[in-house]
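does this look right to u?? NDP version
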Amino acid sequence: MNSDICRKKIALFGATGSIGRNTLDVIRRFPDRFELFAVSCHSNTAALEAIIDEFRPKYAVITGEGSLKRTDINVLRGKEGLEEVAAHHEADIVLIATLGTVGIFPTLAGLRACKRIALANKETLVAFGSVVVKELENSRGELIPVDSEHSALFQLLLSWKDDAETLILTASGGPLRKLSREEMERVKLADVLRHPTWNMGRKITVDSATLMNKGLEVIEAHWLFRFPPDRIEVVIHPQSIIHGLLRLRDGALVAHMSTPDMKVPIQYALTYPERLPSEVRSPDLPDLAALTFEPPDFDRFPLLKLAYEAINRRKGYPAVMNAANDVAVRAFLDGKIGFLDIEKTVFAVVNEFRGTDEDLDALIEADLWARKRAGEVVDSLV
Ligand code: NDP
Ligand code: MG
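got this back:
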């Protein structure tokens, strides 16, 4: 059999990032199954050139500044470039691992063209969940989660959807899990970037420290699985071995476990409904003796509570919260504001917001408004 015929062609957006590199590892491991069809980066064109040298994709999209030195590849730009590739008749799977909310454009374009969207970029669902769900209802495309907790829940729900009463997302608790509010006031960037269990990009690592990441994930789970927020729980589980659990109606509790390595959920999103061998070993049973669980502390981590409020209110509140958080985290990463100024900025912007419609244009406008206001709040804190 000609292996080219059954090789799946993958468009990988955010190829130069943490999820992007892990995805390339999976593709490298299965050259007979997968072929890299297209890649994107924002501005790290040197890293993109190296990926192109190795994988020889047909298309490259650059969403920010910079250009490629070579002429042996089709180069597209911006969100229009992402959309064109996502809808390309040759692409089978579109894996979206960009930062921010630009992911909405290739998500919608890919669904319209009946593609499999493997979605890592949770911010897209948080801000535009209602729009994505509507598109999915009219599409023969698929939306498969890459986020580890959602991959776990997706897999559990394949067996127990009708009997599941509650979804449980685990959270490591992040690097500041045990700190008091006074200690958080003084915490340094390097402390925040030292995540105990996961090796990820800088933005999501900061979100893990504020527990905003888990708040975003509650909203992501709401849209992916259509469970109301009061049937989505969060539990702190510092070892990150269990990623998701379901409470079933007969009192059973079922869990999905794996070693914390993003290659596991990435590979599953690419191969679903099949499972292929992995280089990542499953956890050893003696290690499970040390698993611990505790409830989240909403007082020390108020952004998690805000995320529940935002999804209960809807009307663009999740989009505004997410956009303000994006701006605040960037300012923290740039050394402009302190750690607790992140939540101060997010609360200031959300408290000013008065709600909007849930269509794409209105949500984009709310996102832009929140980014502008958050920038002003940040400037006032500097
Ligand atoms: P990284 O910061 O490591 O990588 C981000 C990627 O997106 C890079 O390729 C970057 O290009 C590109 N990018 C940056 N800014 C933009 C922009 N404005 N528009 C388009 N592309 C951009 O991030 P991660 O890989 O950690 O995370 C990617 C997404 O996946 C996020 O939404 C995150 O929440 C989600 N996620 C990540 C997990 C992880 O383990 N890392 C786990 C679960 C979800 P360049 O290199 O040129 O800057
Ligand atoms: Mg996650």
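The first strand starts at residue 8 and ends at 13. idk if thats expected tbh
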